[in-house]
Design goal:
By secondary structure, the chain is α/β, with parallel strands linked by helices. 40% of the residues lie in helices and 20% in strands. The chain has a single domain, classed as Alpha-Beta Complex (Spore Coat Polysaccharide Biosynthesis Protein SpsA, Chain A). A seven-stranded mixed β-sheet has the order 3-2-1-4-6-5-7, with helices on both faces. Helix 6 packs parallel to helix 9 and helix 8 packs parallel to helix 9.
């Protein structure tokens, strides 16, 4: 894919949506994208759907909305994000917004994250200090998210409000500097660790969090241990091991 020239004077925003069998959630997210408001704020918006080899109608939904749809290399959310970052760079993105396409994150709130890029290189949506809807997160996951967030802050000595949030806004220069090798759901924790290790500035904005559309894919205990292990590994080894 070749880099496109932006001759309009607007910033090129790529909305990166990692998906795996998210036909219903993807449709909801694409309908809710605040394209007109983004344009009014100076953003020329494109959507990149990184597909984890879906077997439902996810691809058909992407076609119906005329957005870019690409099968990721191998499998796993971490793989999708890393592949997606490379594609956004080739597309000439000035800014990238990443969110899950399952209805948990509200597309309209990306404007709040984008405003924060004037002060920091990365802005992260903060669920834990935002508005979590009833039934959006089990009690076990709620406690687990708080424990992992506390552990990350203690381990790195830099406050994080929500180490597992999946709603991020990135400047291009921040993506250029991130050093990642995650395959699965530990990708957000590794991005936090990499920002600290690489001296990338970041901040938080409170966001809403709603019940997902469709079946959950995050496995509570196994993925929690994987996230914890990644935090420890990247504290010992600031650069990812190949």
């Amino acid at each position: 894919m070749k880099k496109n020239d932006n001759r309009t004077g607007m910033k090129r925003l790529i909305v990166l949506l990692p998906v795996l069998n998210e036909a219903l959630g993807l449709e909801w997210v694409l309908r809710k994208l605040p394209t007109d408001k983004l344009r009014a704020n100076g953003y020329d918006t494109q959507v990149l759907v990184m597909d984890g080899h879906s077997t439902d109608d996810t691809g058909k939904v992407a076609d119906e909305f005329n957005v870019m749809f690409m099968e990721q290399e191998d499998r796993g959310k971490g793989t999708a994000i890393r592949h997606g970052f490379r594609e956004t760079q080739e597309m000439g993105a000035d800014v990238v917004v990443m969110l899950d396409a399952d209805g948990t994150y509200h597309p309209g709130e990306m404007l709040r994250l984008l405003e924060g890029l004037d002060q920091s290189d990365v802005v992260i949506g903060d669920r834990l200090n935002g508005a979590i809807s009833p039934d959006a997160m089990t009690r076990f996951n709620f406690v687990g998210n708080h424990l992992l967030t506390w552990f990350a802050t203690a381990l790195y000595g830099v406050t994080t409000n929500d180490v597992c949030s999946g709603y991020w806004a990135f400047s291009r220069r921040s993506i250029d500097r991130l050093m990642l090798n995650s395959v699965s759901f530990e990708i957000e924790a590794e991005m936090y660790a990499s920002m600290i290790n690489q001296g990338i500035s970041f901040s938080y904005r409170p966001i809403s969090y709603s019940p997902r559309i469709g079946e959950a894919k995050l496995g509570s205990t196994a993925d929690g241990w994987r996230i914890l292990r990644k935090l420890i590994t990247r504290r010992i080894f600031p650069k990812p091991l190949l």
